[in-house]
Write a structure and sequence with these properties.
304 residues, single chain, 24% helix, Thiol Ester Dehydrase, Chain A, ten-stranded antiparallel beta sheet
Length: 304
């Protein structure tokens, strides 16, 4: 499936993104957790899934007739974004901060998806708000097989009314995350300059900072940066290839934070820490002791 055909499948996600970009500030915080909204969407086109897995250097054959759980933002973002409607925040300044998901059963790729979404929690410390929205995905034969959470970061106005600059978490006063010194290198990956555009077409996250160099430089990034969800998916696919003998069915859970912008093109390393409480720490960075672009963990079936 070519880029334009992929983009034709992204109408709901692109409309949701534009809706956030032009959303006005609401007036009241809702009672939480909020009510679920429900929707059924068509099965994901095989060509779209293949394009997504190609972008994150995954293995289409290894997933068989199931959907990768880390693809959830593609079909879920319209409903997850809708859960933010009416909140008293500048949603146009929201950025992806992290995620979690738990796979309770394989998600069939050839069935319509039944979705339930709600705003679950808000963490507002006066400087920033973290908006946690929950998505439950299932099908007729596999109801509620995937439970995922999207975390959005919204900077808040400083005292005196001046807004924080940059639209990203303020890390100036605290150490930036790094790859632990004892982490094991699993795989290295080469990322092309056009990867942001390819991932945008496959997922519908068409923010220009990921594919339009002049726009990204004007935004202060120095060049195009990779989507956080792409960074995480690269890590998860590499972990499955290296530690699970390619058996993607054993990937049953993951969580993580997007810690720093990843400029393209780049050469990255996927690193694993020592398993703790059934989870294996996972990092995407350059080398042990150096900056990490993604910090999280993965749960495999054998680890439970």
């Amino acid at each position: 499936m070519g880029p334009w055909a992929q983009l034709r499948e992204q109408g709901p996600g692109i409309r949701a993104m534009l809706g956030l970009a032009f959303a006005g500030r609401g007036e009241h915080k809702p009672e939480l957790p909020g009510p679920y909204t429900e929707r059924e969407v068509p099965a994901r086109p095989p060509g779209l899934v293949a394009a997504y897995l190609d972008a994150v250097q995954g293995d289409v054959a290894a997933w068989g007739n199931t959907l990768p759980p880390h693809f959830f933002s593609q079909w879920g973002f319209p409903m997850l974004a809708g859960a933010f409607a009416g909140l008293p925040y500048e949603l146009k300044r929201a950025v992806n901060a992290g995620f979690s998901w738990e796979s309770r059963a394989p998600l069939p790729a050839n069935e319509p998806l039944r979705l339930r979404a709600r705003l679950k929690h808000i963490d507002d410390d006066g400087k920033r708000a973290l908006l946690h929205s929950e998505l439950i995905t299932g099908t007729e034969s596999a109801p509620e097989s995937l439970v995922s959470t999207l975390i959005a970061y919204v900077p808040l106005p400083r005292r005196g009314g001046a807004a924080e600059e940059g639209g990203a978490p303020d890390t100036a006063k605290k150490a930036k995350p790094t790859v632990p010194a004892d982490a094991e290198l699993l795989l290295e990956r080469e990322l092309s300059a056009d990867l942001g555009g390819r991932f945008a077409c496959a997922t519908g996250d068409v923010n220009p900072i990921h594919w339009l160099g002049p726009y990204a430089r004007m935004a202060g990034f120095g060049g195009v940066i990779l989507h956080g969800y792409a960074t995480a998916a690269l890590g998860l696919e590499s972990y499955a290839a290296s530690r699970l003998n390619g058996d993607r069915a054993r990937l049953v859970g993951a969580e993580g934070r997007f810690t720093q912008p990843l400029r393209l093109p780049a050469k990255i390393g996927i690193f694993a820490g020592k398993p703790e409480a059934g989870r294996t720490p996972l990092f995407v960075g350059v080398a042990p002791g150096e900056a990490a672009w993604f910090v999280g963990s993965v749960t495999a079936a054998a680890d439970r």
